[in-house]
Specification:
This protein has 86 residues and is mainly β. The protein has one domain: RNA polymerase II/Efflux pump adaptor protein, barrel-sandwich hybrid domain (OB fold (Dihydrolipoamide Acetyltransferase, E2P)). Helix content is 0%, strand content 48%. Strands 1-8-6-3 form a four-stranded antiparallel beta sheet, with no helix packed on it. A hairpin with a 4-residue loop joins strand 4 and strand 5.
């Protein structure tokens, strides 16, 4: 399953933010809750984390500004191995 990573709304008046730095390489494995990228708004800089474990596919580019809700990455969710919990 593919999980879409979008620009989150971090404040009531936030309409856009800048993806300042990727913390994970494209195609690399990520753990659930691992920081993926740094997002900067007028008021704050935040790390956005992976909602699930899997493989990261970066779409957004460093230094670009994106609207809230815009797709910047996908995580191809890791499948459980036989005998493991999903």
């Amino acid at each position: 399953m593919t999980i879409h990573i979008r620009i989150p709304k971090l404040g009531m008046e936030m309409t856009e933010a800048t993806l300042t730095k990727w913390l994970i390489d494209d195609g690399a494995g990520v753990a659930q809750d691992q920081a993926l990228y740094v997002l900067e708004t007028d008021k704050v800089e935040s790390e956005v984390t992976a909602p699930v474990a899997g493989v990261l596919r970066r779409i957004g580019r460093e230094g670009e500004t994106y609207a809230v809700g815009e797709l910047v990455a996908e995580v191809l969710e890791a499948l459980a191995r036989p005998g493991e919990d999903p």
